[in-house]
Write a structure and sequence with these properties.
about 140 residues; alpha+beta; 3 helices; about 20% helix
Length: about 140
């Protein structure tokens, strides 16, 4: 039985139809137990008028499949309106009112990975980036 639906989407649709590249081989499954543990230290910082918005840290992960060391940094629930309002002292206007609930988040995580005997073809360096844009009244939750 195929690993549905992810295998069908990945191999049949993306690899075959969209990109015309070889399918990812699916063979015998690993029967040994796998385990992993991860730890990180993160320091949170402020922006003018906003608490705990930026962060910087690092950590490591070790397990039966691979080891990884990483750094991470970014910002969470950053309000561009608050960044403009705080130094200027202007707290009114329809633009500020319209965009006061806009929040932006982003993170980067570069790392170095070393494979165990299980995965020989893992890339030894990795880079993950993600971002989000939200519009919500978070005032009761973010004081």
């Amino acid at each position: 039985m195929r690993n549905q639906p992810s295998e069908a989407v990945r191999n049949d649709f993306i690899h075959d139809r969209l990109q015309q590249i070889p399918q990812i081989p699916v063979g015998a499954k690993r029967k040994e137990p796998n385990c992993t543990t991860t730890g990180s230290i993160t320091r949170w910082g402020e922006l003018p008028g906003q608490r705990q918005v930026v962060f910087l840290g690092g950590g490591g992960q070790t397990g039966s499949l691979y080891d990884e060391h990483f750094a991470h940094g970014g910002f969470r629930h950053w309000s561009p309106v608050k960044s403009i309002e705080y130094p200027s002292g202007i707290h009114d206007g329809w633009v500020a009112e319209m965009f006061s609930h806009l929040r932006v988040s982003g993170m980067v995580r570069p790392g170095k990975r070393s494979s165990r005997v299980t995965f020989h073809d893992l890339a030894n360096r990795l880079f993950v980036a993600q971002n989000s844009l939200s519009y919500a009244d978070e005032s009761p939750f973010c004081t």
